[in-house]
């Protein structure tokens, strides 16, 4: 059923954190993965790093996960300004839909409170209303989270996710950017379904053809 998968990331690293283990698993299974990052967050780069550091890091991180270079699409909307650019973002998504025709889309969940994430969620619903959609978990942005779908993961998938995150040296100050937290969340979600590890998702739309 699922051959083409599209990951919508409001900013670089959102996709890796939200579904990096699942990406690694699906690449291993031979599925075609596309990753669209809508901002390289130049305005929020920590002091001491070049302004384009997140563009460099997302290229390295997605390569670790196995995403082909030509399947990484980078847009340059200013961070925290997605709401003002929602029509252009929607048009980008419509073009992605026509080009890729994904069977599954990963995007932020309906409970994500970040304004950029919220915009990608809302416009993603419009652009991919005839596609299966899973909302990924970003604990720092979710006041609540509906764990209505899970993807089994193995140790090797978690290792890939961790290796990808290690490429984001500019984000090491974030409380979620460390092995302890990533493993503990994956372990918690695994316990909920009787697995060693898992990633949890909100089942926003599921279509069986």
Short summary:
The chain is an alpha/beta fold and 209 residues long. 39% of the residues lie in helices and 19% in strands.
Q: Can you put this structure into words, describing what you see?
A:
- The structure is a single chain.
- The relative contact order is 0.20.
- The protein is of the alpha/beta class.
- The protein is 39% helix and 19% strand.
- The protein has one domain (4-204): Rossmann fold.
- The longest helix has 15 residues, at 14-28.
- A seven-stranded mixed β-sheet has the order 3-2-1-4-5-7-6, with helices on both faces.
- Helix 1 crosses helix 5 (155-165) and helix 3 (86-100) crosses helix 4 (115-127).
Number of separate structural domains? 1
What is the terminal-to-terminal distance?
8 Å
DSSP summary: helix tally? 6
CATH class: Alpha Beta
**Number of extended strands:** 7
Whole-number radius of gyration? 16 Å
CATH topology: Rossmann fold
Q: Which terms would index this structure?
A:
19% strand, 39% helix, 209 residues, single chain, 6 helices, globular, Rossmann fold, 7-stranded mixed beta sheet, alpha/beta
């Amino acid at each position: 059923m699922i051959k083409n998968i599209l990951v919508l990331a409001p900013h670089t690293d959102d996709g890796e954190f939200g579904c990096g283990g699942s990406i690694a698993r699906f690449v291993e299974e031979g599925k075609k993965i596309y990753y669209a990052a809508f901002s390289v967050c130049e305005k929020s780069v920590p002091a001491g790093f070049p302004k384009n550091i997140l563009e460099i890091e997302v290229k390295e991180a997605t390569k670790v996960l196995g995403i082909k270079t030509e399947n990484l699409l980078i847009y340059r909307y200013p961070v925290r300004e997605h709401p003002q650019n929602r029509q252009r973002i929607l048009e980008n998504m419509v073009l992605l839909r026509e080009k890729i025709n994904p069977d599954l889309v990963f995007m932020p969940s309906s409970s994500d409170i970040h304004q950029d994430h919220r915009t990608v969620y809302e416009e993603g619903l419009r652009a991919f209303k005839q596609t299966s959609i899973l909302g990924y978990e970003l604990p720092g942005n979710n006041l609540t989270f509906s764990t209505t779908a899970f993807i089994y993961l193995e140790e090797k998938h978690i290792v890939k996710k961790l290796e990808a995150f290690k490429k984001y040296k500019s984000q090491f100050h974030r409380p979620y950017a460390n092995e302890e937290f990533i493993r503990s969340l994956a372990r918690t979600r695994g316990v909920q379904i009787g697995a060693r590890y898992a990633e949890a998702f909100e089942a926003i739309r599921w279509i069986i053809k």
